[in-house]
Amino acid sequence: MKEKEQGYAVLKGVTPDTFNRFLQWVYHGFYSAPHPKMVDASSPLSPDTLAIKEANEVRIGGSVDVPASEAIEADIGKPVEPDFDWSDFGSKTKNKKARKNEDCCCSQFSSSSRQSLRQAFISRSYEALRSAVPIPLARKNENENEDYADVFLSHARLYVFANKYLIYDLKTLALENLHETLKFFEFYSYRTGDIVSLIRYVYGNTQIPDDGKIEPIRSLLAEYVGLEMDILMKDSAFRDLMIEDEILDTAQRQSLLDDYMAAVMKRI
Predict the structure, then answer these.
(1) Structural Rg of the chain based on CA atoms
(2) Closest among 33, 43, 66 to 174, alpha carbons compared
(3) Rounded-to-integer distance, Cα 185 and Cα 139, Å
(4) How far apart are CA 214 and CA 222, in angstroms?
(5) Which of 86, 58, 82 is nearest to 70 (CA)?
(6) d(Cα 169, Cα 87) in Å, to the nearest integer?
(7) How far apart are CA 44 and CA 39, in angstroms?
(8) pLDDT at residue 99, as a whole number
(9) What is the pLDDT of residue 196?
């Protein structure tokens, strides 16, 4: 085998941090997510729109150095305010009074449906096999200056790694940890980029649904998008994911759009 001759094996698309968390899980039955980064909310260089590309490699064994992590920075500092109001789409011919009454009705219905979706999201449960070692619960963010992109991605990357190498217990644990983190995440409008980065990575690195079988992590995110669409739909970076993105291909964008529209139907 090539690995035997070289003295090391190469795991393509796996970051050093992801592999270290895998080793931590092997020896301890759990893994630690990174701490959120503190950023300046007033800075024009917002981290919201960082496009993260998994182009790293980990080499196991031998004396070969581990390549440094690579990331691609996309357009940063995009405004949260929408270029246009999606709620007005297709309703230009309505008079102001009719639209006002409709908006009021839809707003009340949306609030009610959101509460129902929120409860359903919180109630999601998994059967991760954990060790007897106490595992800290997910930490709730306290303000908009806390960047959670790396926290979310740490769970998503480990999920993708476990899925690729058929490590089902780790896959379930990573999914559960991501769910716990999202459940406690206070979604400030400035932090849309944290979620956009997560969605981009998941839809770019998991299988498009076939025969109605949706990848569990996609199902989790689709439900979360439906829950927080009031904020996400105002963000141009999120809309661009479904229209034109440097990382996602046409099929991946269409899959995301299909999931988004299904989430919209649950809110109306």
Answers:
(1) 20
(2) 33
(3) 8
(4) 10
(5) 58
(6) 42
(7) 11
(8) 43
(9) 93
Tokens of 198: 């997560």
Structure tokens at 199: 């969605």
Region of residue 245 (left: phi > 0; alpha: psi -120 to 50; beta: else): beta
CA distance 62 to 8: 5
Assign 3-class secondary structure to the chain: CHHHHHCCEEEECCCHHHHHHHHHHHHHCCCCCCCCEECCCCCCCCHHHCECCCCCEEEECCCCCCCCCCCECCCCCCCCCCCCCHHHCCCCCCCHHHHHHHHHHHHHHHHHHHHHHHHHHHCCCCCCCCCCCCCCCCCCCCCCCEECHHHHHHHHHHHHHHHHCCCHHHHHHHHHHHHHHHHHCCCCHHHHHHHHHHHHHHHHHCCCCECCECCHHHHHHHHHHHHCHHHHCCCHHHHHHHHCCCCCCHHHHHHHHHHHHHHHHHHC
* Residue-level pLDDT at 210: 74
pLDDT given at position 41 = 56
The pLDDT of residue 31: 92
Token duo for residue 193: 């980029």
Name residues of the chain where pLDDT drops below 70: 1, 3-4, 41-114, 125-137, 212
Q: What is the pLDDT of residue 26?
A: 93
In the block, residue with structure tokens 């994911």? 241
Mention every residue, 6+ apart, whose C-beta is less than 8 A from residue 169: 128, 129
pLDDT at 52: 34
Whole-model pTM? 0.71
> Which pLDDT tens digit goes with each residue over 174-217?
999 999 999 889 888 888 999 999 999 999 999 887 776 788 99
